[in-house]
Structures are given as C-alpha cells and as structure tokens.
Amino acid sequence: MSRQWIWPMAMLAGLASASSEAALVVTESLDGEMQTRIYHQGVYYELEEGRLLNRIDLAHDRCLMVNHEAEVYFEGACEGSLDELMATMKAEFDRQLASLTPEQREQMQAMVGAMIQGSGRGEVGFERDGAGKVAGYDAESYRISVNDVPYSRVWVSADLEAAIGKEFDLDAYRRWDRRMREEMDAMTHRLGGQEKGADPMAETFDAILAKGYLVKVAPNPGADMMGMMVPSTIADEASEEIEVLSVEQDPDFRPESLNPPGDYRELSSWTQFMQVDIGSEEHDDQAHD
Length: 289
Description:
Blueprint: E1 23-30, E2 33-40, E3 43-48, E4 51-57, E5 62-67, E6 72-76, H1 81-98, H2 102-119, E7 124-134, E8 137-146, E9 149-157, H3 158-165, H4 170-191, H5 200-209, E10 213-219, H6 223-226, H7 235-238, E11 242-250, E12 265-266, H8 270-288
Parallel strand pairs: 6-12
Antiparallel strand pairs: 1-2, 1-11, 2-3, 3-4, 4-5, 5-6, 7-8, 8-9, 9-10, 10-11
C-alpha cells in the first residue's frame, strides 16, 4: 500500500475552532524523505517534495487525494468514505485470492496463519525515559520494548499538540486512521484463517500519542525483525526513523496555492481512485523487481 494511505483522509466532527490567520507548518524527515504537514483554519495539507498529496477539510466534509504517478485526483465527502474505501480494498483482496489455485491459496493461508500465531508471542511495553527539546518544543521520550528488549524510542510534545489542536482536530483524525489500520489487519487475519486479536503495538503507540504530538521516532537495530513478533498494523510506524525538523508560522500562506496540477484528471469516486492507486503501486513494485 502506498505511503499516502498511511496518513490519508479524516472524517468526523468535533473540529476545533481555528485561532489564527497564520498557518502552522511542520517539516519532518521520514526515513530520510522530507514531508510537510500544514494546519490552517481547520484544514490539514500533506505535501511531499512540495507536491500536495492530501487536503482534509473536516469543517466542510471535503477530502482530496492526489496520485502523482497516475496524474489523477479525487475530491469528495470525508464522512462515509471509509466504508467505500474498505469495500474497494476487500474486493481487490478477494480478486487476488480468486486468482490463486487451491494449492496456492492453502499455502498462503498456512504461511500467513503461522506468521500471525508467531506474532502473538511478543509482549509490548513502554516507559518514560527522558525529556528534551525537538524542533524547539519540549518533548518527552518513551522507550518501547518487545519481550523486555528495547524496540524503539518515541518522543511526543504536549506543547506542539496544543498548538496544532487550535487549527485541526487531531483526535478525530487518529480515530479514523486507527480504524483503517484495524480493517486492514482484519483482512490479513482472514487470509490466514485466524480470528483478529489484540494489537499490543497499536495500543502502546496510542497510549504514547495520547501524551502529545509525535515529534521523533528512533528505532533500535533489528526493530523490523522484532516487529514480526507482534501484529503489524502499527509496528512499521514505530520502526521508521521520524523527526520533526522545524515548526513555523506562515502568515503568508494561501490555501488556493495548493491544488492538483491543472492537467491532472479528476476521477469520479473514491473506489475509482483506490483502484488506480493499487494499479500504480503494482506497477511500481514490478519496476523494482
């Protein structure tokens, strides 16, 4: 699944009121790649290499997503889109299963089932282990462990959380994002013939994020392998190198400056966008084989 689906749309109400004319611009490094998140008067913009990926407007229930590889985009209602997106993913999931022979399907189910059962052996915990500043904001550090072995350190900032919360409803966004991850995890369990269980890494990450805005993640060597011991819906996030590099107020921000390029094609539904996105990813995977 492409990166842009990790932080996609948000739905729901409960939007915090905007407090200023200036946009809050958060620049971060994600595994060495620069990403920009802009929060401004109830709208969230996600940019990569200066190009708009997502625009989320909870106040007006409008979410826009752009696929630059396919040069297409779609804008529609945020609320209710999750069911449509999940239905599309399920249909693609079933299509791929149907393309397998009975023997291949049995082998895949056995392999995935064994992986899921193995992941249940990991006990995840966390503890506060320090404090400091990240991008000029006070932050607290928490150490995540798997079976008492250090897995990753995660820094969060309550001050930055409060600043962003004046512009955008982060809690609503996180609830939506977590539901998407859980739906994906449920499909994986179905493939392995397993009942969906608890996700201790996701629960741990949620508990840490409840204390502030994520400003840094420093995984320990071998975190990817250790992540196989727990369900994977969130383990990848805790094993990525993430750091907020700067937080700035931009009084000159102009929302109309961030739109899909004029020559991109507008699609007619979230389902169509998802199908194009899946096709783009499959093509990219083949190009790297």
